[in-house]
Design brief:
The protein is α/β, with parallel strands linked by helices. It folds into 2 domains: 9-190 and 230-256, NAD(P)-binding Rossmann-like Domain (Rossmann fold), CATH 3.40.50.720; 192-228, no CATH class. The protein is built from 8 helices and 7 strands. Strand 4 (89-92), helix 4 and strand 5 form a beta-alpha-beta unit.
């Protein structure tokens, strides 16, 4: 049975699509008030916030912060704290991707991926921690990836950023282990989000095969379970990490990948 929590505040980066939107729905259903940001157009994002509020009877605040800019990362957290009074849960989920061999990898794409996937989590965490430390409570969840534990070709920036997130998770966990604050990383396998679908379509175009064949090839090595990880499974893991039963789980990197990294 889903634990129902009332009057706790969760911040979710990249919360308007994909995994982040799934977590926003799950946390709102569990009674959390939410502060979210994402790439959605302002009107679309505001409509999404109102839908969540009406469906789950919680407060939802949207902030159009650009997480590639350190000052906007910090401002997003400060705005959420001002709006709700505090932050209980911080979920660093935002991420972007680009695929190319190292020698062909555009330097601007490298910089952007490291900024959004890794540095943004540092800036949000750095800003949220003092309030959590003062209250003696906090849950920080970083959405890493199986690529935070293993590598794949043509994904140098993404793999580097996700390995970095795993390292950041462990440091934050150790520094706050006696302060009532936990920090953990969820490491999903492939989730059929728009970002993954674009990769499959790019493989199909480059290999001159159908999207269906590219999907089979894309999945063959990475999914021993034979299926994608679902957004709902990741959200359920995040909710568990915020529960009393997970109070002594910190610094962990939890694979939700259908056996990919067990190989």
């Amino acid at each position: 049975m889903q634990q129902i929590v009332r009057d706790q505040i969760a911040v979710i980066t990249g919360g308007t699509s994909g995994i982040g939107l799934g977590m926003a729905n799950a946390f709102a259903a569990a009674g959390y008030h939410l502060a979210v940001n994402g790439f959605a157009a302002p009107g679309e994002a505001e409509a999404l916030a109102r839908d969540l509020e009406q469906q789950h009877k919680v407060g939802v605040h949207y902030c159009p912060a650009d997480l590639a800019i350190p000052e906007e990362c910090a401002a997003f957290i400060t705005e959420a704290q001002r709006h709700f009074g505090r932050i209980d849960v911080l979920i660093n989920n935002a991420g972007i991707q680009y695929v190319a061999p190292v020698e062909q990898f555009p330097t601007d794409r490298w910089d952007a991926i490291l900024a959004v996937n890794l540095s943004a989590a540092f800036h949000t965490t750095r800003t949220a921690l003092p309030g959590m430390q003062q209250r003696g409570y906090g849950r920080i969840i970083n959405i890493a990836s199986a690529h935070g534990l293993v590598a794949s070709v043509n994904k140098s920036a993404y793999v580097a950023s996700k390995h970095g997130i795993v390292g950041l998770t462990k440091v934050v966990a150790l520094e706050n282990a006696q302060r009532g604050i936990t920090c953990n990383a969820i490491c999903p396998g492939f989730v059929l989000t728009a970002m993954v679908q674009k990769q499959i379509e790019a493989i199909a175009a480059a290999s001159h095969v159908s999207v269906e064949q590219a999907t089979r090839e894309f999945q063959q090595e990475k999914r021993p379970s034979g299926r994608y990880t679902s957004v709902e499974e990741i959200a359920a893991m995040a909710l568990f990490l915020c529960s009393e039963g997970a109070g002594n789980i910190t610094g962990a990197c939890l694979s939700v990948d259908g056996g990919w990294t067990a190989q």
